[in-house]
């Protein structure tokens, strides 16, 4: 009897372990997805909506006007717009159906799972998009630093560093 109980317990542990790991992965992916969506929304406020619309249009091969309509109809931020289009692309499901599920209160993790999409693939995609936007912003900053105003800024920074070599700020 004791052997049977131990065998059943061992079998349960073997079956449950992958499920626990999958749940932990989903939770981690969901947290990262939300973080990346917020970063995309911040980028839109910093570099402008037009640039983000252009990037999303290129990413999903969707006309900018359609993306604008989707955003107006759903009241999604750019991050959620990205997620919904990414899930639609990966699942073959219509954007409107997925957006409605979200508006009905389902989380992105549930929507992804119900449509056979691994959330990690959506996370990877939005991370790549955010990385590309950040590289564009950095290139734009570097270009500005090469002009006359940028050279003057660098000169002022260098003078401050030379005047205060210990790196202490003024008080």
Chain-wise SSE layout:
Elements: H1 2-47, H2 49-60, H3 64-74, H4 78-91, H5 95-103, H6 108-114, H7 119-146, H8 148-163
In short:
By secondary structure, this protein is an all-alpha fold. It is built from eight helices and no strands. Helix content is 84%, strand content 0%.
Polypeptide structure, described:
The chain is built from 8 helices and no strands. The chain is mostly helical and 171 residues long. Mean pLDDT is 82; it is low at 19-25.
Q: Which descriptors would you attach to this protein?
A:
171 residues, mainly alpha, 8 helices, flat
Helical amount:
over 70%
Bin the strand percentage.
under 5%
What is the rounded Rg? 24 Å
Low-confidence stretches: 19-25
Written as H for each helix and E for each strand, in order along the chain, the element string is HHHHHHHH
Note the overall shape. flat
Task: List the quaternary state of the chains.
Answer: single chain
- Straight-line N-to-C gap: 77 Å
- The tally of beta strands, per DSSP, is 0
Structural class: mainly alpha
Mean pLDDT: 82
Main sheet specs: none
